[in-house]
Amino acid sequence: MHQIIEFIRQTFNTQDFIPLHEPRFIGNEKKYLNDCIDTTYVSSVGKYVDEFESQIAHYIGSKYAVATVNGTSALHIALKLANVSQGDEVITQPLTFIATCNAISYCQASPVFVDVDIDTLGMSPHALEQFLEKHCQRINNQCHNRTTGKIIKACVPMHTFGHPCRIEEIKTICDDWYITVIEDAAESLGSYYKGRHTGTFGKLGTLSFNGNKIITSGGGGAIVTDDEALAKKAKHLTTTAKIPHPYEYVHDETGYNYRLPNINAALLVAQLENLENFLRSKRELARIYSSYFANTEIQFIKEPQSSSSNYWLQAVMLKDEKQRNEFLEYTNKNGVMTRPIWRLMNKLEMYKNCQCSDLKNSKYLEERVVNIPSSVRI
Ligand SMILES: *Cc1c(COP(=O)(O)O)cnc(C)c1O
Predict the structure, then answer these.
(1) How many Cα atoms within 13 Å fall on the side-chain side of residue 270?
(2) Which of 220, 248, 274 is the C-terminal boundary of a domain?
(3) Ligand 1: distance of its center to the CA of 97 in Å?
(4) Segment holding 261, helix H or strand E
(5) In what order do the strands lie in the sheet with 307-308?
(6) CB of 100 shorter than 6 A to ligand 1
(7) What is the CA(285)–ligand 1 centre distance, in A?
(8) pTM for the predicted model, two decimal places
(9) Whether the CB of 94 sits within 6 Å of ligand 1
(10) Residue 333: which domain range?
(11) N or C: which end of the chain has fewer CB within 10 A?
């Protein structure tokens, strides 16, 4: 254990506390922020929002992007655009950050949890297909859950820590069952599955630019899609559903104040200029960790086959729960921050009665996976 601490200290070249993930502002951030302040365009009007939306769409290869205040609001609106409403069900994975489930709850729908694959840490197409065949029925181009009597409207797979899940296979299955795929790509900007950027396989994809993500605006998010009508609707709903007019305030439905302020977009435009550097640094860190842990009892988690991961958060797999707890205790006590993967969503009070497939892989990973320091090194 002591050797691991020493190795991580040497890798980050410091004897101080090492956080899990720190943002880096090493480019034009201050310049663009000053521009916002000098021109007074700090809020909902300004050139950086448009600039960022077009740059991020171009980067990931989707036709449209709509910036939002955070990733959770992006998911909320994406689910609404998929017509998820009161009493519906949405399939997702139990191994995810709470935001995925919160957004489902905001639509007054409930999650259904299917298991993940061990190698991707993301939704298993096999578990998904088995679940649908066992419990569901196609009626009038909708997926009816025979067990709960509800309609499954959408499926939200997530690319855990930046490692792509088998999204192409998941999309094929969902198409076959009339289920809309919304990809939670909050953690996977810069990650590709079979050469295609994550977030572009589903009807809609969502991104997050929270403080701990690979690029950040403090808080921010985006909805991406190739569907022009959905993109327009996303912009409308996130802009209080105001009908564009030079001075009149008329709104045609209940909208949301989910627009990203120009000042946050300015940060993102600067951060995006450094994304390739960040990706290179994280890949190099993964290589360093991987060769170090190869000589230990601890397994470093590498990008799955057929994919290129952004290695946003680096992760290791411990032998069992006991060894995991010892590892967490020792590292955190010694100023090296580490964190276990999330508690499974179906164990939380709000979701304890939700339907689940057999979750053996999720449980296995929950007991063993730990994130280790992952910041871009300077
Ligand atoms: C970060 C994250 C989100 C969005 O979080 P916000 O803080 O609202 O931007 C959504 N899903 C996952 C899996 C995340 O990691």
Answers:
(1) 23
(2) 274
(3) 7
(4) none
(5) 196-197, 192-193, 307-308
(6) yes
(7) 23
(8) 0.97
(9) no
(10) 2-22+275-345+356-367
(11) C
3-state secondary structure of 18: strand
Is the Cβ atom of 314 under 6 angstroms away from ligand 1?
A: no
Confidence label for 4 from pLDDT (cuts 50, 70 and 90): very high
Q: Which of 215, 246, 274 is the last residue of a domain?
A: 274
pLDDT of residue 45: 81
H/E stretch holding 4 reads: helix 2-12
Q: Is the pLDDT of residue 46 over 90?
A: no
Residue 132 reports pLDDT greater than 90? yes
- 266 and 314 both lie in a single domain: no
Q: Which two tokens stand for residue 216?
A: 């950040």
φ, ψ of residue 295 in degrees (nearest 5): -100, 15
Question: CA dist 60 to 40, 223, 224, 375, Å?
Answer: 30, 12, 9, 22
Does the beta carbon of 97 sit less than 6 angstroms from any atom of ligand 1? yes
Q: Which atom of ligand 1 is nearest to the CA of 73?
A: 8
What's the rounded mean pLDDT across residues 269-279? 98
Spatial separation of the C-alpha atoms in residues 179 and 82, rounded to whole Å:
9
